[in-house]
Design a protein that fits this description.
- By secondary structure, the protein is an alpha+beta fold.
- The chain folds into two domains: 54-112 and 234-311 and 420-445, FAD/NAD(P)-binding domain (3-Layer(bba) Sandwich), CATH 3.50.50; 160-231 and 314-406, 2-Layer Sandwich (D-Amino Acid Oxidase, Chain A, domain 2).
- The protein has helices at 2-14, 37-49, 58-66, 83-94, 123-131, 135-154, 171-188, 201-207, 233-246, 298-305, 373-384, 442-445, and strands at residues 74-79, 99-102, 118-119, 159-168, 197-199, 214-215, 218-219, 222-231, 250-252, 255-262, 269-276, 282-292, 313-323, 333-336, 345-350, 353-357, 361-362, 398-407, 422-428, 431-436.
- Helix 4 (83-94) packs parallel to helix 9 (233-246) and helix 5 (123-131) runs antiparallel to helix 6.
- The radius of gyration is 22 Å and the shape is elongated.
């Protein structure tokens, strides 16, 4: 468990702001990016890489927001401290913009810390792209595979390459998954992590001892192993926030936006009224543009600008469970190719335990979503037929639920069929909303 021990050790170190310089390497802006230029970008990189660099204390951050005014506004005020919001703040700050970010709870306290911990292109999305001739899904996979490699390179101490095993109980499945995963490699191109390959039944059981040799469709014919990325999502998110602060952004957690501020003509958003959740103090922060990156709560922010705006978020519940370490070996994940609802389920080693998930079902938007018993049982049922150990409800050590903020498609019958691509729109002057997308592609959302 060397890797797990190393990650646990680093967790304590990177929790303090002085060491968060390494939390994430500075993102590579597009060639067309303007602002600071290469000299300013190099200075920002050096600032992030400086182990002696310190993040300004909370009082200084709050004072910087209070010090804004109609004639001295921020360039950008970001609402939401998840992956997208912190990514926007970091990207904007490194381009020389004056940036502020506020988060109602703590950084990565919501959806961004409740993922499958995977950085992946989306094997399921590629399958849909091929069989539905869906260029949108193919484009999503292409961009996600490119970003997968970049995120791993940006934060190698928080991200790693993880082989994932796909069991095959029919020879047709061997051919089908081998061809599909070779296409996955092909789409990745030079951003490919490692070549996928076939393993015989004996080799597969040796690599994954708890893998069953018997399935519903017969005996194990072998497995196809491909490679994706794994990350520590919450620490990566906090790293983005700290990196943004180090290059000049003002970031403040436990600061709730309670209303938006209009200009004197009532035609444009020019700031937000903010409440410090720790002290109860309220103040105004002004900005030329307000970016709404509030995840599942995007519609709540949009309705502050115009209560008649129609909802654009279709919330989806994603539940994961934590199981003992013996369910999966260190350094190898298992993919359940198709669950009852047509999804792919993962069973992955994680910090000395095993995480399994996920579900995809309609849900209500709440601050603290909780996993339901039927969702936990769904995951246990999905993995039990692929294992040679008894899968017991009592083995579940913990569980969590995250709300995916999917951009709504009126024609979609369920959340599983909705694209995971992001949406950027300005449906009220001065307020830009970013929603949807995947953890892997947070940089593209920015």
């Amino acid at each position: 468990m060397a890797t797990a021990s190393r990650l646990r050790g680093l967790g304590a170190v990177l929790a303090v702001s002085g060491a968060t310089w390494a939390a994430v390497a500075l993102v590579q802006p597009p060639a067309s990016a303007s602002g600071r230029g290469s000299a300013g970008l190099d200075a920002a990189r050096r600032r992030i890489a400086d182990p002696a660099a310190a993040i300004p204390p909370r009082e200084v951050q709050e004072s910087a927001l209070i010090g804004t005014s109609v004639i001295n506004p921020l360039d950008v005020l970001v609402i939401g401290g998840g992956a997208t919001g912190c990514g926007v703040a970091l990207d904007a700050a490194t381009r020389g913009l004056r940036v502020g970010l506020v988060e109602r709870e703590d950084f990565s306290s919501g959806t961004s810390s409740r993922s499958t911990k995977m950085i992946h292109g989306g094997v399921r999305y590629l399958e849909k792209a091929v069989f539905n001739l869906d260029y949108g899904q193919l484009k999503l996979v292409f961009h996600a595979l490119r970003e997968r490699k970049q995120v791993i390179e940006n934060a190698p101490h928080l991200c790693q390459v993880l082989p994932c095993m796909t069991p095959c109980f029919e020879w047709f499945e061997v051919v089908y998954y081998w061809m599909g995963l070779k296409l996955y490699d092909l789409v990745a191109g030079r951003r490919m992590l490692h070549l996928s390959r076939y393993y015989s039944a004996n080799e597969s059981v040796e690599l994954f001892p708890t893998l069953s040799r018997k399935g519903h469709n017969g005996s194990l014919k072998g497995t196809v192993v491909y490679y994706d990325g794994q990350m520590n999502d919450s620490r990566l998110n906090v790293g983005l926030a700290c990196s943004a602060a180090l290059v000049g952004a003002t970031v403040l957690n436990h600061a709730e936006v309670i209303s938006l501020i209009n200009d004197e003509f009532g035609e444009r958003i020019i700031g937000a009224r903010i409440r410090d959740q720790l002290s109860g103090k309220e103040f105004d922060a002004y900005a030329k543009v307000v970016v709404n990156a509030a995840g599942p709560f995007c519609d709540s922010v949009r309705k502050m600008a115009n209560k008649d705006l129609s909802a654009m978020i279709c919330p989806s519940s994603g539940v994961h469970i934590v199981l003992p370490d013996y369910y999966s070996p260190e350094g190898m994940g298992l993919i359940v190719p198709k669950t009852k609802d047509g999804r792919i389920a993962f069973m992955l080693p994680w910090l000395g335990r095993t995480i399994a998930g996920t579900t995809d079902s309609n849900t209500a938007i709440t601050m603290l979503p909780e996993p339901h018993e039927d969702e936990i049982q769904f995951i246990l049922d999905a993995i039990c037929s692929y294992l040679n150990v008894q899968v017991r409800r009592s083995d579940v050590l913990s569980a969590w639920s995250g709300i995916r903020p999917l951009a709504m498609d009126p024609s979609a019958k369920n959340t599983e069929s909705i694209s995971r691509d992001h949406v950027v729109l300005e449906d009220y002057p001065g307020l830009i909303t970013i929603t949807g997308g995947k953890w892997t592609t947070y940089r593209r959302c920015c």
